[in-house]
Amino acid sequence: VMVPEGDFFIPKETPFVLEGNSMPMHPEYTFSWEQNDASDESFSMNPLDNSLPFFLPDKGPMFSTVDPTLHGYKRYFPDMESLINNTYATEINDYGTMLTVEKLPFASREMNMRLIVRTNDPYAGSLNHKNLKFYVDGDAGPFRVTSQADSTSWQVGSEQTITWDVANTDNLDGVNCQAVDLVLSLNGGDSFDFVLAENVSNTGSYTLTVPPIPPVVYGRLMVKASDNIFFDINNGTITILNNNVPSLVVTEPVMNIALGGGEMETSTAEVMNDGEEGSVVSFMTYPGQERMSDESFSDGSLPEGWTTITNAECDNPGWYVTEDASSSYFTIPPGDGFYIATNDDACGGSSDGSNDMLYTNEISLPEGMVELSFRRFFTAGFSQTFHVYVSRDSWETYDEVLNLGYWEGNEEWVKETIDLQAYAGESVAIAFHSNDNGNWASGAALDDIQLGMTPLWISSSSTGTIQYQGVETFEFSISTAGLVDGNYSASVVVEDVYQSLSDTLEVNLTVDGALGMDTDVIPDEFVLYQNYPNPFNPSTDIKFSLPNSERVHLVVYDLLGNVVREMVNEDLNPGMYTYKWMGENQSGGRVSAGMYFYQIQAGSFNKTRKMILLK
Known about the structure:
Layout: E1 9-11, E2 16-19, E3 30-35, E4 74-77, H1 80-84, E5 89-94, E6 97-103, E7 109-118, E8 127-137, E9 144-145, E10 152-155, E11 159-165, E12 179-185, E13 194-201, E14 205-209, E15 216-225, E16 231-233, E17 238-241, E18 248-250, E19 254-259, E20 264-273, E21 280-287, E22 290-295, E23 307-309, E24 320-322, E25 339-343, H2 344-347, E26 356-359, E27 363-364, E28 369-377, E29 385-391, E30 399-404, E31 414-419, E32 427-435, E33 443-454, E34 458-459, E35 463-467, E36 471-479, E37 486-496, E38 501-511, E39 527-528, E40 540-546, E41 550-557, E42 563-572, E43 575-581, E44 594-602, E45 605-613
Parallel strand pairs: 1-8, 10-17, 19-38
Antiparallel strand pairs: 2-4, 3-7, 5-6, 7-8, 9-11, 11-14, 12-13, 12-15, 15-16, 15-17, 18-20, 20-36, 21-35, 21-37, 22-33, 23-26, 24-25, 25-33, 26-32, 27-32, 28-31, 28-33, 29-30, 29-32, 34-36, 37-38, 39-40, 40-43, 41-42, 41-44, 44-45
């Protein structure tokens, strides 16, 4: 376990960050930083409790223990969410009493911290830790960013002055911080990774020319010690204005790939910014979604095969297609033309609006990540509820996949997305149910009801920035496990969400089992590959190679080391093998979402990897 060198000083009442790691650092390891300071005196975490001191100035813990996580090797004190909300302490509601669970040290004292590493090996789990000791200088701090306290805008190319309260942190006999770094977050504080200036003299002021930065609306500024762990964040959001128009272009828009069955391959493509000088692209990639259906009611009628049912009796009972379904107590904002709605207000209090049902025709869903999306106007007024159901057996039985009540009401059109991957590969029908629950004066409206599918055999999650005339590469991975011989097509979307730019890489895949067959080729080594896709739902492929004939035992475990599913327990010949886990236990029941481990034992070879099952 490796942690920073200790015995340094930080200023009082100032945020800090601790980061460490381990050797080795396997993907299944989890980490947590915690404070290791005890106290022989009682204290209270409730600031309103006058019977005990509110924390102790020179002893005892200031920060609560947190659960171990994959990224717990880095922890902000206090939690970054508190800092982004401009508070320097973290509170929780303990049955009506607000308790402070993270408080910055406020006097000279010793701080003893510890990084704990857990291996999470289901057979021989272990943990290790390393301590870190440093000190708080009660004569220094609080270190604070004093500029950009309110929301402000920065134009690329403009001069901006950043100020901060040094607060005696430059004292050679104390904290001894002589330089700071200025770092910008482009995503509201989720990460601080755009460096504005480094090793700036810690004098409390610095003027810079704003470099080319993608336009953003939720920027935040961090001033941090160059050679210490303390920092502070400005209070207001910073909007970056960049009038230089970028261009996002995939340089090779179509790629043709041929693979054998049961193979995995990672490929790269290039994207460039050929826009105006000074422009910047900030991109992310993801598999494109194939639109299966899109009902926008543009012709003013109910789609073919759809039906409605209602108990209401009025001029327009139940669901009907219209351009304006508004009434006195149920006013629908204008849409983009026709939509479908049910209005219990217009039908009056004597009409029964509890069973307004809209049914689709039967739909064959392909294998893949299937999503149902639609725009809805639903206020939840007067006890109105809204439901979405899915049936596999022509409505003999059904599942409720969405339930909207009082807390989900809105006064505007809202997009709703529902994951239907659990029904992939099946024929289903979908129903939308508006229920007035014996009341009236409300209703529901729907538009742009869409079904989309993302193939499971392709994945991509690259990110990056591209300066003017720059070129960057991004990765995408393909797995042919479970695919029969044939031709497949998919896309990878490259998008700059800040500037509404995107381009698409079209991927044409040919799967030919003969390409992957070579009886003369035997793997050189034992390998347990990372499962694909990961994270996944509902299934994933686990691949391994055997250079020798061995008795193979492949098992899926939960976080506690309990056997979830025995995948393989037999003698296998040399070769490449792929097994599909359907997210089921040994009895065939679906397991809950979360982290799992899969481990192979083949002769003397023993390897464990982690995987994540999504909801």
